[in-house]
Amino acid sequence: MFPIAFHSLYRHPLPEDHRFPMLKYELLPQQLLHEGTALKNDFFEPEMCDLDIVLAVHNKEYVADLLNLTLEARAARRIGFPLSKELVEREFRITQGTILGCQKSFESKISFNIAGGTHHAYSTHGEAFCLLNDQAIAAQYLLNKKLAKKVLIIDLDVHQGNGTAEIFQNNTKVFTFSTHGKTNYPFRKEKSDLDIALPDGTTDEEFLKTISEIVPKLIEQQKPDFIFYLAGVDILKSDKLGKLSCTIEGCKKRDEIVFELCNKFQIPVQVSMGGGYSPEIKTIIEAHANTYRVAKNIF
User: Fold this and answer.
1) CA–CA gap between residue 127 and residue 166 (Å, rounded)
2) DSSP string covering 158-192, please?
3) Residues 285, 24 contacting (CB under 8 angstroms)
């Protein structure tokens, strides 16, 4: 099949008002195993990411404040989770899961992280439930280790990858592409290499048309030798934090477009899950599970 990063700490217990968004990290692996989309030996458990790898992207003082739990109250509020040792460790493990997934993708063509997609984490601070930017750290790791010369980040979460854009704003070896809701958070957008801001209520037809036209051109123009894909399912009409109007089938078709192109051009891809905040957990799980089902059919 394909490698999937998952660790029990992904399910880190939180206060009651923060618990619902975390349920999918526990339920999605169960669903994939139950239906046979993934097998038990497809999953691997990441350890903590090396500090030096994280510091290649994130500010030393910021990371020290995370590890020592000494973030100023205002900075902690921007993250949105109560800061704890377990939460910080969780982020370091998620990041390592993405890095290991990259390494495995060179053989398996594709890898997944059950968590990740923490694209709101800047080099100097975290925000919106994101402490460390897993795909940005992994992208820089590939470049530093000379495992890739050009990286393409395809961010199709409903929210702009503002942290990723900031981190790579002066790095020509990483091309950042974000398609997102125009009026969604973050309300002050950063400048990706290419941003497509979609109006409220955008449906499957317009969303898929945009992706179908742009992604093939980007691959041909940029000629990446590695792709990171952020497959957030908060583009759904039912999503509480999204303002687009895509269906579950449209979200599935989006994944098909990206994966078919990666397969066609023989470019290894790492997939992180990103957002999903529909009122019913079964909707979130079904939309995320589709991403894995599509991969199984294509790769």
Assistant:
1) 13
2) SS--HHHHHHTTT-TTEEEEEEEETTSSPSS----
3) yes
Q: Which residue from 165, 163, 184 is spatially nearest to 174, judged by alpha carbons? A: 165
Locus of tokens 């123009």: 221
pTM, two decimals, is 0.95
Number of separate domains in the chain: 1
Q: Is residue 109 within 8 Å of 268, Cβ to Cβ?
A: yes
287, pLDDT greater than 80:
yes
Q: Are the C-beta atoms of 102 and 151 separated by less than 8 Å?
A: no
Residue type, 236: L
Q: How many helices (H) and strands (E) does the chain have?
A: 11, 8
Bridge partner list, 181: 198
Nearest to 255 by CA among 225, 203, 297, 221: 297
CB 143, CB 153: distance < 8 Å: no
Spatial distance between the Cα atoms of 61 and 66, rounded to a whole number of angstroms: 9
Give the HSE-up count for residue 69: Cα atoms under 13 Å, Cβ half-sphere.
9
Per-residue model confidence as pLDDT tens digits over 104-152: 999 999 999 999 999 999 999 999 999 999 999 999 999 999 999 999 9
CATH number at residue 225: 3.40.800.20
Q: Nearest to residue 116, comparing CAs of 97, 102, 143?
A: 97
Query: What range does the domain containing 35 cover?
Result: 4-298
What does the alpha-carbon distance between residue 237 and residue 278 come to, in Å, rounded to a whole number? 8
Query: Which token pair is 44?
Result: 């691997």
How many CB atoms are closer than 10 A to CB 44?
Answer: 15
